[in-house]
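How a chain folds remains the central question behind the approach discussed here. No coordinates are needed to read the tokens, only the vocabulary itself. For completeness, the protein is quoted in full, as a sequence line and a line of structure tokens:
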Amino acid sequence: EVQLQASGGGLVQAGGSLRLSCAASGIALDEYVIGWFRQAPGQQREGVSCKHISGDRTYYADSVKGRFTISSDYAKNTVDLQMNSLRPEDTAVYYCAGDDRTFRTRYQYTQANSYYYWGQGTLVTVSS
């Protein structure tokens, strides 16, 4: 059974940092693409970053480039999202998602409906 577990959310002041972790079970990370998405109240779910290890592809949303870094840890079977220089507009529920397909375009990698497996969300609140 494939399971994804997101953790690491919390309350932080603007300019601060948080590290989210997506723990995967039932899969081998190098066979999957793992994406981080977020959803703010009243907003659509949006792609933040994704990593396809075997495809050697990493994508970031323009709004987080230079501030967020996605990384994988084979020993822990996790995909982490290091979030620095956080802004109030980063406040959202963050989700990790996974799929075992190889997508053809950046658009596919960054769309929520491309991913089959989803973890529960973790809330990130950035105060001003």
In short: The first helix runs from residue 106 to 109.
